[in-house]
Write a structure and sequence with these properties.
- The protein has 330 residues and is of the alpha/beta class.
- The chain folds into 2 domains: 169 residues, 3-Layer(aba) Sandwich (Peroxisomal Thiolase, Chain A, domain 1), CATH 3.40.47; 150 residues, 3-Layer(aba) Sandwich (Peroxisomal Thiolase, Chain A, domain 1), CATH 3.40.47.10.
- It has 11 helices and 13 strands.
- A 5-stranded mixed β-sheet has the order 1-7-6-4-5, with helices on both faces. It has a 4-stranded mixed β-sheet with strand order 8-13-12-11, with helices on both faces.
- The structure holds oxa(dethia)-CoA.
Length: 330
């Protein structure tokens, strides 16, 4: 095994989940669907929905404040604010800059990274490069999405799937054995049209036509995306393990992106893991896009189950398409 001398680690974490809960029973009153269909096809029971007056930076800043507080840090102690999101407050400036303002600091560089649901893992990989090159010491990475504001609530094929949430990580150089052991990332731009938000960008600037055709909402060819997600997540998890010089049998926890329980379970089978080793919260939160992995990791750590030295595999797939895995020693 090629032992990695320099690693980054998670110093502390924070999350934010909106209070409002939307259940499958609520959705039965909104579109032609059933709790039975949603549960068997996706595993989702309920999801959180942001208030109308809450924007992406509002969710992100709460998670960020908790991560800073748990790490015993002030906002000015970080060298970069990096936000992974697909649903920014505004096309520009970046949500990272809005969060910098809400944290009451200035000067600290801030930018957004957009990589579909894979954004949190892409963000960790970018932060690792910046920290290990010596260009900065500490990154505040926030993964946040408010998909409810870009969901067509009349489209039953998508509106039952998504939820809102945020997670934040403080990343810095590790001084011991813990930290990021390996990463693997990839993308396939030729398949981008299978999952997209077509309107409002330069391809289809907002107009009466784009509004009429509901192009400001998520469009997804679900069953096509499903097949690619199953394939890529399994492959990425195995490749990440190989790069870390570890075997499937050494995995203590799998934290997969939470889009659909069937995709999670297929990834688990690919790694021959027992169900207790897989972190699942899609039942409670639906698909929160970038926020699924940090919220799952936070909840696993808070549960007290994680032990020092445990091997965690995080793996995600999303719009782009993009995919990535990170193998991490706690
Ligand atoms: O976050 C990263 C990317 N996202 C994903 O990874 C999501 C990947 N895709 C999926 O999770 C699944 O494809 C879905 C959950 C979206 C859909 O499940 P599916 O088993 O692929 O169903 P389907 O789209 O093939 O639709 C099957 C049937 C259709 O009816 P017909 O044509 O067979 O009569 C749909 O019209 O289910 C119908 N349907 C629904 N019925 C009740 C679709 N949505 C609903 C609904 N309630 N909400």
């Amino acid at each position: 095994m090629a032992k990695k001398e320099n690693k980054i680690k998670i110093r502390s974490m924070g999350i934010y989940l909106p209070e409002k809960i939307l259940t499958n029973a609520d959705l039965e009153k909104m579109v032609e669907t059933s709790d039975e269909w949603i549960t068997t096809r996706t595993g989702i029971k309920e999801r959180r929905i942001a208030r109308e007056d809450e924007v992406t930076s509002d969710l992100g800043v709460v998670a960020a404040r908790e991560a800073l507080e748990k790490g015993g840090l002030q906002p000015q102690d970080v060298d970069l604010i990096l936000v992974a999101t697909n649903t920014p407050d505004t096309i520009f400036p970046s949500t990272a800059c809005w969060i910098q303002k809400k944290l009451g600091v200035s000067e600290i560089p801030a930018f957004d990274l957009q990589a579909g649901c894979t954004g949190l893992l892409y963000g960790m990989i970018v932060a690792e490069g910046l920290i290990l090159s010596g260009s900065l010491n500490r990154v505040l990475l926030i993964g946040v999405d408010i998909l409810s504001k870009v969901t067509n609530w009349e489209d039953r094929s998508t509106c039952v799937l998504f939820g809102d949430g945020a997670g934040a990580l403080i990343l810095e150089k590790s001084e011991d054995e813990s930290g990021m052991l390996s990463h693997f990332w990839g993308a396939e731009g030729s398949l981008g049209e299978l999952l997209m938000l077509p309107g409002g960008g330069t391809l289809h600037p907002t107009s009466e036509e784009t509004l009429r055709d509901k192009m400001h909402y998520i469009y997804m060819k679900g069953n096509e995306v499903f097949k690619h997600a199953v394939k890529r997540m399994g492959e990425a998890a195995l490749e990440g393990l190989e790069r870390a010089g570890l075997d499937k049998a050494q995995v203590d926890y799998l934290i997969p992106h939470q889009a659909n329980f069937r995709i999670i379970d297929a990834t688990r089978e690919r790694l021959n893991l027992s169900p207790e080793k897989v972190v699942v919260n899609v039942d409670r939160y639906g698909n929160m896009s970038v926020a699924t992995i940090p919220v799952a990791l936070y909840e696993l750590a808070e549960s007290g189950k994680l032990k020092k030295g445990n091997i965690i595999v995080m793996v995600a797939f999303g719009a782009g398409f993009t995919w990535a895995s990170i193998v991490y020693r706690w």
